[in-house]
Amino acid sequence: MNVAGIIEYYEKNRGWLGSKDRPRKIIPYLANMGSVLDVGSGNGECFAAIQEANLPIIYTGIDCVPRHLTEAKERFPTLEWLLGEFLAYDFDSRTFDAVISVQPFSTDGWQIEDISPFVDKMYRLATRKVVFLAQAWYDHVRAACSRYQVETNDRMNLPTGEVLLVCLTKSSPAGGAA
Question: Is residue 174 part of a domain?
């Protein structure tokens, strides 16, 4: 992952380029989740959708673009915002019920080789679910997710373009929900 490339992309394009409907697409998968890590949290648009849905979730956002986190902290000053590259960030032994991401892999700075480590780390940090919307490299995303329990793996058309919604779930050894 080329953080400098991602930062440069957002400096040139100013702002979150996705539509506000994208974060709303993951909300149904977050019911009964106590804690969420939002990877590439931007200015907090996913949390705004969580708040709009009245979900009582302990939220943590991580982003590598300093300006995004400045905006997020202004919008939602009481939340936890982490500045750093997700793949390199040391979460110690922390876990989250769900790990989410809206539009990873869709800007300059991402490489196809980043997909599997990204999905693997999301899965390691999640105790119950991984949910993300991908807008690029669908076949590579599906391949990276294929070794996990896939609840949803659907392409959908939104007003701003096609996305792939992926939801991975974790099960307890007995086969029930973790």
Answer: no
Q: How far apart, in whole angstroms, are the C-alpha atoms of residue 135 and residue 102?
A: 9
**Residue position matching structure tokens 């032994």:** 93
Question: How many structural domains are present in the chain?
Answer: 1
Whole-number Å distance between alpha carbons of 178 and 174: 9
Q: Is there a domain that residue 37 lies in?
A: yes
Question: 96 in a domain, yes or no?
Answer: yes
The reply to whether 177 falls in a domain is: no
Global pTM value: 0.81
The amino acid at residue 27 is I
State the Cα–Cα distance between residues 177 and 156, nearest whole angstrom.
26
Do 59 and 122 form a contact (C-beta atoms < 8 A)?
no
Q: Tally the residues of the chain.
A: 178
Here the CATH number for the domain that contains residue 97 is 3.40.50.150
Per-residue pLDDT of the chain (178 residues; tens, 9 = 90+): 666 666 666 676 665 555 567 788 889 999 999 999 999 898 898 999 999 999 999 999 999 888 889 999 999 999 999 999 999 999 999 999 999 988 766 555 556 677 888 889 999 999 999 988 776 656 777 777 888 888 877 766 655 556 667 787 876 433 344 4
**Single-letter amino acid, residue 97:** D
Tokens 């302990």 identify what position? Answer: 58
Domain that holds residue 55: 3-169
